[in-house]
Amino acid sequence: MRRFPPFLITPALVVVSLLDVWFQVYFDERTGLILALVAALSLTFRNRAPHLVFLATLPSAALTWAIYAPLIALFTLATRTRNRLLLIAGALAFAFCTVLPWPDPRLADMLTTSTVVSAVYGTATALAPVLLGQLILARRDLAERLREIQQARAHEQILTTQSVLATERAQLAREMHDVVSHQVSLIAVRAGALQVSTHDPEVKEAASTIRGLSVRTLNELRHMVGVLRTSGSAATELTPQPTLDELPDLVANSAVDARLELNLPGELELTPPVQRALYRMVQEGLTNVRKHAPGSTAVVEISSAEGEVHASVTNSAPARPVLALPGAHHGLVGLRQRAELLRGRLEAEPLPDHGFRLAMSLPLTT
Asked: How far apart are CA 48 and CA 206, in angstroms?
């Protein structure tokens, strides 16, 4: 049937029913012949109105031996409905029509042994297309459920892939901001300072070019980080993986007049995620000092108290005019995400003396 063209199935069934009429009905039986032809031709509408078509075929079963049309109509009805009571009633109606004495239906004639046997045979004959139709309906429902499951699994796989990609994009954006933009902003600040302090025209021009390229690079990084963060989420860390042992080098090479005060007990061992978060916080704080408070002094403090480790970068008011450098505040967003992941908190606040303080507190056990 799958290889048979669907649009030819109904005409083929009509032809089969007409052949059944040809072999089973005598042409001198006008009433029976008309009813049998009506039953066969009504199969044309079996898919549109299966209930009415089945009712239209029952008289043929009652008056003639042409039973193909009623059985086909009953099969079609079984493939369209899940109402078991309706199907059982249809099978019994067909069986009753096959044993109904005609044209003189008398009760005495219906209570004979042969009539009972015929009724059982007719019922079994009617149940065959009902069971076959229900089997096809169940198979169709199962195929639909399997299709839905496959679609759901494919959709779930797409969502999983998108989630993994979004997580990696968020990680990449955070590390790009923390590592790459840190170095580029340092180049821009150094080039700007050199441009202001030198009197050599060639050096001034070179410093101006370096600063322009650095600013352009920062703008491009800002755009890239923004695109990456649009679908990102917090997850595991990517390399590089700095520790607190690298803080002295970070402070010394920050181009900021900064002092490091590391007040941690010697026996205290911080987990790698905590050390990375503190390192990134100090790095971001020093970067912001360079960008927004040139000429100021800064104090970097690391200490522990009451089951928490505290880190802060505090700077004084800027001593020189602030150079206009691009920024999108992604650094503080990334730091806040890191702190929340480790069940800590981040504070960023201006000071009364026009300085600024960036602080992070993390629990010692995460």
From this structure: 84
